[in-house]
Amino acid sequence: MTTTTICRAWAIQRRDGVVLGFTDHDARIEFDGILFRPDHGMSARALVQGSGLSVDNSEAAGALSDDAITERDLLAGLWDGATLRMWEIDWNDPRARTLIFAGSLGEVSRGNGSFRAELRGLSEPLNAAQGRVYHPRCSARLGDGCCKLDLADDRWRGTVAVEGLEEGRILRFASFGNFMRGWFERGSLLVLDGPAKGLGGVVKNDISLPGGAREIELWQAMAILPRVGDRLRLTTGCDKRADTCQKKFANFLNFRGFPHLPSEDWLMAPGAEGRNG
């Protein structure tokens, strides 16, 4: 491979299956059925890779564009956890290439019409803590393989159109079905229509107002605001308590916590050693 004809190319596959190719060469390159384009202004810093398990010291940066990397897709989380492969290539002969990085995108930040994404190597998941945590509250995520609750059931979610919006995070509705007060606290919101389609948020408060009206407050304002009339999907939340699992979801059989585990205060209380055989 001739050093004067070396360029870099990287392919990114998003969570929705879309694959995009980029290169720092001044012309298009194609191999493995992927077209690597130079016209999106995406680049990557020099890779620093070691034999340990730390995050590789590198990042990808680029410009937001209408047809490749849009601000709305970033906000919707489509690029979170996207897989990435990077090659060094002889642009005279794309068959002469070396894979120099494989991993995923980590934290993605944006601003001033551009974005930056941390690159994480294949060993990054090995840094995550393994095993279960012994805690009175449930360790499962609502609706996952351990919880086994079907969140597609209409008992756990509802669809409603926006009737009022304040500060980008407080939504108001004249009526909201038969859901109990606080039903959606700690739950999620997803926009189904309009310019904010695909964006979402986490519900902080679910407040019942006089006359059957409802107010939903998010923890953080949405970057792109839904319009009056746009539809939202609200999914219930869980506070991880055994009582909630039993009474709200009737799912105590799958509860993944230890509700009878003594607290640290109880273990340290005078005479506790005599009661703890």
From TrEMBL:
InterPro entries for the chain: Phage_phiJL001_Gp84, Phage_phiJL001_Gp84_C
Coiled coil: none
Domain of life from the UniProt record: Bacteria
Domain Bacteriophage phiJL001 Gp84 C-terminal: start-end pairs: 182-265
Protein name: DUF2163 domain-containing protein
